[in-house]
Each structure stands twice: as C-alpha cells, then as structure tokens.
Amino acid sequence: MQIRFNPIDPAAEAAELVAFLCRNEWPFHGSARLDEVAVRHRIAAGHYWNSDREAFWIEAPERIGYLALEDLADLADGGNPVFDLRLAEQYRGRGLAVPILRALAGQVFERFPSVRRLEGQTREDNLAMRKAFRKAGFLKEAHYRQAWPTGDGGYLASVAYGLLRGDFETGTVSSFDWAD
C-alpha cells in the first residue's frame, strides 16, 4: 500500500478541513467532536500550518485521514517531532495505522536528517493505536498517569512511544532498563 502525505493549504482547503475534522468523531482525542466555529478560528489563526506545525492529508490512494507534525520549531535545538494522527471513521479498524506510521517515520527521517527520534502519544484505552505503535517498531517509553483529559472531567493515562532513527533503519527495536 502506498501512503502519501499531501500538505494541506488551510486557506485554499478550509472547507475540506472543516468537513473532515467536524464530520468525524475523535473518541481518543481531547474532544470527541470538533466545533466548526473553533476549527475555522484555528484556520484563521494559522494553527494548521506555521513554523511549529504542518498538516497533511493522508492518501492511500484516496483521502483517508489527517496528520499533523508538531514541535517542528524545536528541531534545530535537537528536539523531536511528535504527531497528531486522525483516520476518518470509515477507515478505522482496517490495519492502516501501521503502514501510515512506517511511512511517516520514513518521511520524517528523510526530510529531517538531524532528527534522531519520532514520538507519539495516545490514551491508555486506545488499545488499537498502542498495538499499531508496537507493530510499527515504536517502543513504549512512558506512561503518564492521569495526564490526558477525557472531555467529561476525567483523566486517563497518556502512553508515550518513540522510534529511534537507527531502529527504523535496521528494522530493530532497541530497549532500555525500566528498573531504577
């Protein structure tokens, strides 16, 4: 399966971005439902494309999702990009996250030669994404208790995964000693 990440032009594609983000539910994100007014405000404020964030359509070959690379402004100082991945509801549960994560890692490591690692986080109850991270070669590195607001006043753990450039290039998953 060929995965492509096509840059979103928020000004030219505002209607498509609003439709995509507001017509789908996002049960494992901060808000399960996004508000059209809020998304349009974010577009106008430059939220989806700026020096710290770039947004892309995920196509395989049809448009199946949205991806944002974040923390890009920190790369010059040795920082690591993180990402926001959202698949349209009709494409979830099809095993697409693993090839998307692998394609994303390839793109990031090729485009940013100084990047040593790629990071992602998900909620503790998003078992499908946690499994996809592992299958794509990411290693669980942290479990932040009660760190992810659920939108109903509660909190769940945020689980962080990382993929090292060297592991990606060799197809291995290096580990570390959890005991301290």
TrEMBL record:
Residues 3-162 form the N-acetyltransferase domain. Pfam families: Acetyltransf_3. Coiled coil: none annotated. InterPro entries: Acyl_CoA_acyltransferase, GNAT_dom. It comes from the Bacteria. This is RimJ/RimL family protein N-acetyltransferase.
